[in-house]
Amino acid sequence: MNLLQGKKGIIFGALNDMSIAWKTAETCHRMGADIVLTNAPVAMRMGEIHKLAEQCGNAPVIPADATSVEDLKALFEGAMDHFGGKVDFVLHSIGMSPNVRKGKHYTGLNYNYLEKTLDVSAISLHKTLQTAMELDAISEWGSVVGLSYIAAQRTFPDYGDMADAKSLLESIARSFGYHYGVKNKVRINTISQSPTVTTAGSGVKGFDEFVSYSEAMSPLGNADGQACADYCATLFSDLTRYVTMQNLFHDGGFSHTGVSMEVISKFAKEEGA
Prior knowledge:
It is a single chain. The protein is of the alpha/beta class. The chain has a single domain, classed as NAD(P)-binding Rossmann-like Domain (Rossmann fold, 3-Layer(aba) Sandwich). The chain has helices at 20-30, 41-46, 49-55, 69-83, 98-101, 111-135, 162-184, 207-217, 225-236, 261-272, and strands at residues 8-12, 34-38, 87-92, 138-148, 187-193, 247-250. α1 (20-30) links the parallel β1 (8-12) and β2 (34-38). α1 (20-30) crosses α9 (225-236) and α4 runs parallel beside α6. The N and C termini lie far apart (52 Å). The model has no long low-confidence stretch (mean pLDDT 94).
């Protein structure tokens, strides 16, 4: 399938083969795209991004801290130099909460950590888009996708300040989506993905139990990382040119299900025990 033949894109956040960004990079390469990989220097030391680069046609790897405008400027300039022109798509797959990592309850946050959470997980999208706009780095009808989660709309007790970050991420996509659409027909969306087994997701307290609950609540079951990568590819393609400023649920129906018979049956079994 050559859905992305001739397209050129930047993929943020591929840490290892569990990452949605990793699977998206592989999928885009398989569909004909030329890509540049990037991650924060510390994440690159922890992960296996150079292995991914080899699998994706020896894709360039450009280190960049997404909270640094200087790094982002160097990233886009380096990518355009490699491509010999503008970028057609960008995947923002970045999320990190020091509060969650250190077990801080939502009602007892460290506010310095909160600022870091918001900067890394959400404001980095604004910095990425503003830098791209100033450099005129994204081509007309280009596509930017950020990865979100339903905790932006609903309360999940142990998701902590990442819920606030995802809410901000979605707001930035809507607001910048308007301005970038008017200026250069660039479309910006977020995908609200099922809970997915990744290095980042596994750091949330009670994550395994929640994956099981979500599976039981979703008519189609949880969407896995590869399915999300496939969905990203459609949003990078020309088939979705008029989709913008949307938060798109990719969760097997979880977001619109009040309760499932499978969950009800579990309560019935408990009461009958």
